[in-house]
Specification:
The protein has about 210 residues and is of the alpha+beta class. The chain contains 2 helices and 10 strands; from the N terminus they run αββββββββββα. A hairpin with a 2-residue loop joins strand 1 and strand 2.
Length: about 210
Amino acid sequence: MLKKSLLAAAALGGSLAFAAQARADLIVISVNGSEVTNGSGSANVSGQTFGNFTVTASAVGTPPLAQPRLTSSTLDVSATGGGTLTITITEQDVTSPLGVYNMLSGFSLTSISGGIGSVEEATYLNTSNGLYGGTLLSSTTFTGTGGLNQIAPTPLTTGTYSVLEVFTITATGLGSTAGGISTADVPEPASLLLLGTGLLGTGLVRRRRRSV
């Protein structure tokens, strides 16, 4: 009887996982407040010019990543003159987790040279599932290469929402920069405790079977 229940639970879990993977979030890349491209689960821009700036960017969301994770794995910008460029990468239609939870924002800048004065990186959560704006979660400004992780609580989410990663590049002349942002939910201590207890219980069961 127990075996049948476990098999049924496993089948249900597999069905739910398949359904989650079959559903893809919309990833949108915008430059200076105008949508440039979008895609199901991922999006990219390659070598497009916007005024004095040339942009290559790629982002991945769900799938293959679990909600609400969003990774702007590649951002390369070159400038031929002065100005400010804002790149917004949005993952819309996020439905999990709900409530208030902690979001980890990972910021990095792998190169900065020439007339690139600064790169601000920021993360937001928009409870209205919008392309722009929302509640600021974390931010940092780079004037040199580096990396930084920040954890911040989200606003209350009760339905579909969006996660945003925003780059603001300020240039005074010829230069280039590259970096990225990643976001991920952070399990609560209670969830980690339950996970640890479950793993411990599994180990005890295996040990008891071996002794029998």
